[in-house]
Structure formats: C-alpha cells, structure tokens
User: What shape does this take?
Amino acid sequence: MGTNLFLSPRAGPFQPSRMLAARLRRGFTVKALAEAMGLDRRNVHRHDTGLFAPTAEHLRASARALRVNRPAPDTVIGAEN
Assistant: This one.
C-alpha cells in the first residue's frame, strides 16, 4: 500500500501543507485543481489553508488530479467508506 502525501507518515490527521506542496509541485493553481476535482475553488482554498479537512471523496479526487497515491479508506481519520 502506498503512502498518501496528504497524510502524516503514520496516517495521522490531514496536513494541509502536504496538499499545498503537491499542488504547487504539479503546477496547479487553486482554480485548476478545483476544476480537475469538480469543486468550487473556495473548497480547495479551504483545504490548502487548513480551514476544513477534505472529505475522503475530496482526498481521492485531489490524489487523482495531482497524480499521487490514493489513501486507503481506513487511513483517513473520520472517513466514511
């Protein structure tokens, strides 16, 4: 099983700095990532800043868009399958 860049190495809580770093590394703007995820750009901004943690569905969508490993459902704290 791969490691998801948005979670701590021990599958702890969501870390916004990891999502932001992955977004910037891939050259996505907030708007471009939001479009790739099918979300409003305000949601991506909230994830970037840590105002809101993304849902499991949003984590999977961002992982697909940013081409990083997807989290296993049981590694996302508070995620529903």
Remarks:
- Confidence is low (pLDDT under 50) at residues 7-11, 74-81.
